[in-house]
Amino acid sequence: MIEIMPESEGNVLAIKATEKLTSSDYEDVLIPKLNEVIEQQGKARLVLYLPETFEGWELGAAWDDAKFGTKHMRDLDKIAVVGGPKWVQWGMSLGTHFMQGQIKTFPVSEIAPALEWVKE
Fold first, then answer.
1. How far is Cα 32 from Cα 87, in angstroms, rounded to an integer?
2. CA dihedral sign of residues 73, 75, 78, 83
3. Which of 81, 75, 76 lies closest to 106, judged by CA?
4. Residue pLDDT, tens place only, 22-80
5. Torsion over CA of 62, 50, 18 and 95, rounded to 10 degrees?
6. Does domain 2-119 sit in CATH 3.40.50?
C-alpha cells in the first residue's frame, strides 16, 4: 500500500510504502501523483519510506516501477530511500549509475534527516 505523506509539498513527494506493493498502488496513486509534481514543478524529489511493514513488490508493481523510472530518469532530482531490506538499498545504489539525479539511502530511524536532505 502507498500512502502520500503530509510532508509532501512543492516538488517533494514523500510516500510511505507498507505491505506488498501492487500495480494498482502505482497506477492509481504513485504514478499520477509523480506525474502531477513533474508537470507542475519540472522535476520531482522523492522520499520513499519503507518501514518494517514493507514486504516488497508484486511482479506487476516492479514492472510499473521500472517503466516509470526509465521514462522519467531525468525528471527525478533527488531520491531518498528510508529503510527497507538491504537488497532495496543495494538496488538503489546500482540505480545511481542510470539516473542523473542523486540517490541516498537512510536507516528507517532517519526519516527526518532524509526529508531535510531531499528539500536542500
1. 27
2. negative
3. 81
4. 999 989 999 999 999 999 999 999 999 999 999 988 888 777 777 777 777 788 899 99
5. -10
6. no
Query: Which pTM does this prediction carry?
Result: 0.86
- Based on the number of CB atoms within 10 Å of its own CB, is 42 exposed (0-12), middle (13-18) or buried (19 or more)? exposed
Domain boundaries defined on the chain: 2-119
Compute the distance between CA of residue 36 and CA of residue 62 in angstroms, rounded to an integer.
21
Q: Which three cell numbers stand for residue 65?
A: 516501477
What is the CB neighbour count within 10 angstroms for residue 39? 10
